[in-house]
Amino acid sequence: MSLRAQKIQLNPNNKQATLLAQHCGYARVAYNAALSSFKSGLDDGNWKTLYDIKKEFNARKREIFPWCDEMSQNASKNAIHHFSDAVKRWRSGQNRFPKPKNRSGKQSYQADNGTNSVRVERKRVKLPVIGWVRMTEELRWTGDIGRVVVSRKDDKWFVSILVSTDDANTMVQVPLFDDRPAVGVDVGINTLATLSDGTTYENRRPLKVYLRKLRRAGRTLSRKTRFSSNWHKARKRLASIHYRISCIREDSHHKASTSIVRKASAIGIETLNVSGMLKNRKLAKHIADAALSRFLTMIKYKAERRGIPVTEASMFFASSKTCSACGHKKTELNLSERTYHCGECGFTCDRDVNAAINLCPV
Ligand SMILES: [Zn+2]
User: What is the whole-number distance in angstroms between the Cα of residue 274 and the centre of ligand 1?
Assistant: First the structure.
């Protein structure tokens, strides 16, 4: 058995969208109530268990959330469970003490009540209390439905469904004897991926028209009075253009990663320096780096599903500076040098292809 998650955009009607937002609110209120009752217990020197917190919440819920009887109680129950998990992580030293959730943060709630309590039928999902809500695509996996989380980004609603599915259904069958090569993959910002066989995948740039729209929306926003209703409208508009652009990027990453794992019998990739990335203060660079590490993650999980081994080079491996023919390592390599020329053996090759050959396993 293996777990598969799929996030699908919902297409609720107005009434359903209001109910979804109310459920997120109910989950937030329950989480915060659990936090404050746990905290007051700590102050009085009495450790409240999950059972105490639940009991206390159920006694007070009508007072703190007057519409709670019209809501699915799964939302509050799961939120209190999430709080209890947060306390466990805090006690084990993994996280800091949980903080209250506010209205402007991420809005979400967990809708299920255990395995197979939520039904999915073709392009719709039956959420407790809310009923059948349309989905923009079908669930890709079959099996037992576990956690179902509804979330909101800007004005869009999503449902993330966890399915525990039979491996036989999800493993992609790969022919036993095939002559596909091992490939090394060099990733970059201009060319998304260069393979050791010389294939390149361009990074699809958001169209010029989106960049123009982005700039205009940014200007419009800056002229509005903060927190006015026109400011909120302009902010939504800007966010929706950013969303569009991120969809374009994700689409090209999915297409490239699928194409790469289809043609390889083994894959070698580099390890990006993630902690170094977080220190990077230039936003554009940061976003580009984050996108590249997501791209590498896609290659890894898609390869894993096909049973293709992935070798990750050490973070300090100089894949660009090393000669792929003789192994000589240059001390310096300018970013502007697009062609690799080895002073030791005379090997000449495209810079990215040289790096990809170095990353190639075997
Ligand atoms: Zn050389």
Answer: 30
With a pLDDT cut of 70, the percent of the chain lying above it is 91
List the domain boundaries for the chain. Answer: 2-167, 171-362
For residue 336, count other CB atoms closer than 10 A to its CB.
Answer: 6
> 313 CA distance to ligand 1 centroid (A)?
20
pLDDT cut 90: percent of the chain above it: 43
Ligand 1 centre from 333 Cα, in Å?
Answer: 14
Query: CA dist 202 to 192, 295, 298, 313, 331, Å?
Result: 5, 13, 16, 23, 29
Backbone angles phi, psi at 260, to 5 degrees: -65, -50
Question: Which tokens belong to 37?
Answer: 């009752």
Taking the centre of ligand 1 as the mean of its atom positions, its distance from the CA of residue 163, in whole angstroms, is 50
Q: Which stretches within the chain are classed as H helix?
A: 14-43, 50-64, 73-91, 167-170, 208-223, 229-263, 274-279, 283-306, 351-359
At a CB cut-off of 8 Å and minimum separation 6, what does 181 contact?
A: 197, 263, 264, 265
What are the tokens at 354? 């040289």
192-216 pLDDT, tens digit each: 899 999 999 988 777 677 888 888 9
